[in-house]
Design brief:
Elements lengths: L1 E4 L2 E3 L4 E4 L5 E4 L4 E9 L2 E6 L8 E5 L1 E6 L1 H12 L2
Parallel strand pairs: 1-8
Antiparallel strand pairs: 2-5, 3-4, 5-6, 6-7
Length: 83
Amino acid sequence: MKVKIGQIIKFQKDHYIALEKGGKALVKKGDTARVLKKIDETTGEIVYLTGEARDKCQYVKLEVDDNLDADAIAKQILRGMGQ
């Protein structure tokens, strides 16, 4: 799956992620995450936005485009200004 930096991805099935301090968190179908950066050609960093894993970061197997998803980033900035 090829994604852009700033793009929001939605998970299609439940799975667990390991937590840095031990234990695990459940990521449910429908939970979302934002692509933060490209690590290498086959790896990207995401931050979970919803669910039990909210605010946790993880490296995942993703093909990240070097371009930004400007629309998604602009929407996030506008939401932040409204708070």
